[in-house]
């Protein structure tokens, strides 16, 4: 009698998401080191609920896991720093909802989680631009930072966006530039600099905004403007766009 081959089973698919989370968190715990955990304080990252894993190692682990929306949601709920970083790497952008974005954003408690989620997940969703507008006017420090971190990341990753979107972003930057909180003003500054490096037209628009801010009576706005001007008017940046302006003229 001929043996019927046994089809391989997908154990991961059969295993409930809760079990996946437990397995992954156990792996993260084994990967953690005291040296990395102790060093987090130098970068203003809370380590009370962290294992101590380098971001490069987390990204390698994420590649092995593959994309998994349910796993990402489960990892986020654990509250562990590295689990939440990993959630940003393994989630499926097309399955992320505006409600999920708001829920996660409200729980941002440090710049690293905020920026990683914005740069590796939220900016790839169809809701990104709407959230830039919504979050940039909020009062919570890390929600507001997320609005500008998301704008910053879109300058890099949204290749199809029209300049008008970024011009609107410059208006949001000008409105928020007087926020003195460190994690907000740094994100505002980075978004301004990033928009100014996207193309020649936006460079000119960003420089104009930076010049106005540099003359502001508000200390935070002056810092944002002057710091942005240092980069946007540097030889390295101006040379990049000088030839393009002559060609378009």
Outline the structure in words.
The protein is mostly helical and 249 residues long. It has 2 domains: 16-91, no CATH class; 111-249, Leucine-rich Repeat Variant (Alpha Horseshoe). The chain contains 15 helices and no strands. The protein has helices spanning 11-14, 17-31, 34-39, 55-65, 69-78, 81-90, 98-106, 111-120, 128-135, 141-157, 163-176, 182-196, 200-214, 219-232, 235-248. The N and C termini lie far apart (82 Å).
List the helices and strands and how they pair.
Elements: H1 11-14, H2 17-31, H3 34-39, H4 55-65, H5 69-78, H6 81-90, H7 98-106, H8 111-120, H9 128-135, H10 141-157, H11 163-176, H12 182-196, H13 200-214, H14 219-232, H15 235-248
Helix pairs in contact: 2-5, 4-6, 5-6, 6-8, 8-10, 9-10, 10-12, 11-12, 11-13, 12-13, 12-14, 13-14
SSE string, helices as H and strands as E: HHHHHHHHHHHHHHH
What is the strand tally? 0
Shape: globular
Number of structurally distinct domains:
2
What are the key terms here?
249 residues; mainly alpha; Leucine-rich Repeat Variant; 15 helices; 0% strand; globular; disordered N terminus
Short recap of the structure:
This protein is mostly helical and 249 residues long.
